[in-house]
Amino acid sequence: MAMAGLYRRSLPSPPAIDFASSEGKKLFIEAIQNGTMEGFYRLISNFQTQSEPAYCGLASLSMVLNALAIDPGRKWKGPWRWFDESMLDCCESLENVRTRGISFGKVVCLAHCAGAKVEAFRTNHTTIDEFRKHVITCSTSDNCHVISSYHRSALKQTGTGHFSPIGGYHAGRDMALILDVARFKYPPHWVPLSNLWEGMNIIDDTTGQHRGFMLISTPHREPGLLYTLSCKHESWVSIAKYIIEDVPLLLKSEGVNDIQKVLSVVFSSLPSNFGEFIKWIAEVRSQEDFGQTLSTEEKARVAMKEEVLKQVQETGLFRHVAAFLSSANSCCRNLPPLGFEDNLPNIAATVCCQGAEIWAGKYGSLNGYCCRETCVKCLKANGDKAVTVVSGTVVNGKCEQGVDILVPSSQTKQSCSCFASSNYIGMLPASNDVLTALLLALPPETWSGIKDKKLFQEISSLVSTEKLPTLVQEEVLHLRDQLHLLKRCQENKIDEDLGAPLS
Predict the structure, then answer these.
(1) Where are the beta strands (DSSP E) in 104-237?
(2) Which of 152, 366, 386, 429 has a 20 to 30 Å separation from 137 between CA atoms?
(3) How far apart are CA 400 and CA 296, in angstroms?
(4) 174 in the Ramachandran plot: left (φ > 0), alpha (ψ -120 to 50) or beta?
(5) Half-sphere exposure of residue 34, counting CA atoms within 13 Å on the CB side?
(6) Distant-in-sequence, close-in-space partners of 57: CB < 8 Å, separation ≥ 6
């Protein structure tokens, strides 16, 4: 056996009990018999070691997300849809996490951005008895998992703040199983729940807030089917500030007296690189791996995206946005480049490059991709509805690869051709669709400053989510949640605001 100190630290026992020890095995068997190890199996199937000393929060979250089989919405590497620490950067840059670690509140933010259902509790807003109830609930089910944020000193361990999932519970001894993601340091171990609570009840010096725990579970459907907000580029900070803080102030202007004026006010001052902030989610695959056939899963996802797109385009707000953008006399001439021009060759080249980045596991990287060739095809098999595929050959200076983008389409009639045709304009999420979704996702209070009462009532009706069809309603509410979380990150208040439980 490797010597402690060269391979691992010696696990302080008591209070901990090594999972692999005779006593640890006995506790495990007894907990299984008592039914409080149900969450263990999926967690252990996805158990991972943090890849950086400060990545405990990222490793814990990616482990739980994979255990819940939540779809990340993009590839990790090759064809695999899989969460990895490198993909969890929507609330904090990986470089910052690597050097400074990550706070409790930003791990909660990451879980939301990843599409999970999250309930978060700080110890000063709950009790040890409530904590115990939540641990038991998740230990008797494989549909939710607990991530604990604690200070190692309470367990007599070396180090400071740490995150790890709880893998099970022993009722007779009131002990929780910590699946420590720092496997290079300590093995999985049982600890008294009271000691773990003591470690969570210590204030984090960085944020001035208590630590705590979060319950991560699967949403009733995967959010972000078609649209997502992104902070892969630094411009997201100024964009978030603009749409959350500046737009409500601009709408208080005396000259805002009709819907077109409202849209002009919102769109004419958009920050640069706005097109990098809200994107439609591409379905990417490798040409050589999949050929001309579509899997049942692929067809189902594209069909859902098409239904969301159709529902967006059937809203009253979409008609106003489309009219504004197409009007030769509107202020759209002053719109900054959105990054998703209503031109299929441009869109195809862009999404093929994004697809290549996703396929290589380098989404948002600085490596330059260039789409050398694009072509539109329609795939149809066994009497199914035709699916539009944009194919591209992408190069990045070192190599080239072929990618297919499965395109959600709203056209009733399609033809298939390589470019030189305008038949496809408007067939996939473009400026009018994307901007409509974003306007619907703005907080209701955005419009409260409009002085014209009739106009206020009209815009309130247009942006109301209450009467939206279910799919687009869920899509919009997910975007709104993302926007709310990004606002808190932008203000550096993610930890301050996480006082009461967040769900």
Answers:
(1) 117-122, 144-151, 161-170, 175-178, 189-192, 203-204, 209-210, 212-217, 227-229
(2) 152
(3) 28
(4) left
(5) 18
(6) 97, 101, 102, 106, 107, 110, 149, 163
**Mind telling me the catalytic residues?**
56, 162, 180
The answer for residues whose C-beta is within 8 angstroms of residue 468's C-beta and 6 or more apart is 311, 315, 440, 476
Which of 283, 289, 287, 142 is CA-nearest to residue 217? 142
**120-148: buried (b, 16+ CB within 10 Å) or exposed (e) per residue?**
bbbbeebebeebbebbebbbbebebbbbb
- The span from the CA of 467 to the CA of 465, in Å, is 6
pLDDT on residue 359: 55
Low-confidence ranges of the chain (pLDDT < 70): 1-7, 73-74, 78-79, 220-224, 230-236, 280, 282-292, 328-374, 376-384, 396-399, 401, 410-430, 488-503
Walk me through the domains of the chain, giving residue ranges and CATH numbers.
Answer: 17-217 (3.90.70.30), 227-438 (no CATH)
- pTM exceeds 0.85, yes or no: no
The pairing of strands 117-122 and 212-217 is antiparallel
Cα 62–chain centre separation? 12
Q: How far apart are CA 277 and CA 475, in angstroms?
A: 16
| Cα–Cα nearest to 54, from 211, 161, 166, 214 | 161
Burial of 385 (0-12, 13-18, 19+ CB in 10 A): exposed
Residue 178 is predicted with a pLDDT of 97
Nearest of 503, 498, 284 to residue 407 by alpha carbon: 284
- Cα separation, 351 vs 235, in Å, equals 19
Nearest 5 degrees, angle CA 280-CA 282-CA 284?
170
Q: Measuring CA to CA, how many Å separate 119 from each of 145, 262, 486?
A: 11, 36, 18
Token pair listed for 485? 């979380």
Confidence (pLDDT) at 425: 38
Q: Which of 54, 64, 53 is nearest to 165 (CA)?
A: 64
Residues 370 and 395 sit within 8 Å (Cβ to Cβ): yes
Bond from prior residue into 15 cis (ω within 30 degrees of 0): yes
